[in-house]
UniProtKB/TrEMBL annotation:
UniProt-annotated binding residues for substrate: L48, E55
A Pfam short name: 5-FTHF_cyc-lig
Record keywords, A-Z: ATP-binding, Ligase, Magnesium, Metal-binding, Nucleotide-binding
NCBIfam families found in the cross-reference section: MTHFS_bact
Molecular function in Gene Ontology: 5-formyltetrahydrofolate cyclo-ligase activity; ATP binding; metal ion binding
Listed name of the protein: 5-formyltetrahydrofolate cyclo-ligase
Source organism per UniProt: Flavobacterium luteum
Reactions accelerated catalytically: (6S)-5-formyl-5,6,7,8-tetrahydrofolate + ATP = (6R)-5,10-methenyltetrahydrofolate + ADP + phosphate
Length: 187
């Protein structure tokens, strides 16, 4: 299936999820993450979910990271350049939704991309080869392409893998893992 069809399919599937189901599946994903060989790392990038898009709720992941004394990094989007600036999440960080309902830090301590060791990646769909489909603006492809080659990229999905995404582009960056409520995919 191509990216456009997958976007349509998975947006429709997400719309059917209740808040309780999202909470239950998000917790299952967070618990599965504990099995990954990533916990010796220090700098973890986490997306804050767009609740209106019924994304994986990362609150449990934030609690795990905080409990393990990890440095948590969140982003602010620039829609003119389709790029993101990354900030350390601290108790003083003020979060506000932008015009697209993306929760973002208003300001803070900027963290260079090269410091980020693990990235939890939002997505709509993914395939068995580690390719992902996002919303199509290219924010994460740009971000992931600027990271160190050894940065661990972990997709989070409520749904299992598709066999193949038919229109993968040369500059699409593959995931290292994708975690669903039931499965850890390794690529």
């Amino acid at each position: 299936m191509n990216k456009s069809d997958l976007r349509f399919k998975y947006k429709a599937l997400r719309k059917q999820l209740s808040e309780d189901k999202i909470e239950e599946m998000s917790l299952a994903i967070a618990n599965k993450l504990l099995q990954l060989p990533i916990w010796h790392k220090t700098y973890f990038h986490v997306f804050l979910p767009i609740l209106e898009q019924k994304e994986v709720d990362t609150e449990c992941i934030l609690h795990i990271l905080s409990g393990k004394d990890k440095e948590i990094i969140i982003s602010k989007s620039d829609f003119k350049t389709c790029s993101m600036t990354h900030f350390l999440l601290t108790e003083n960080t003020t979060i506000k939704k932008n015009q697209y309902n993306i929760p973002e830090p208003l300001e803070g301590i900027e963290v260079p991309i090269r410091k980020i060791e693990v990235i939890f990646v939002p997505l709509l769909a993914f395939d068995t080869k580690g390719n992902r489909v996002g919303y199509g603006k290219g924010f994460y492809d740009k971000f992931l392409s600027e990271c160190n080659p050894e940065t661990i990229k972990i997709g989070l999905s409520f749904f299992e893998a598709e066999d193949t995404i038919t229109d993968v582009f040369e500059n699409d960056v593959k995931l290292d893992y994708c975690v669903t409520p039931n499965t850890i995919y390794t690529f």
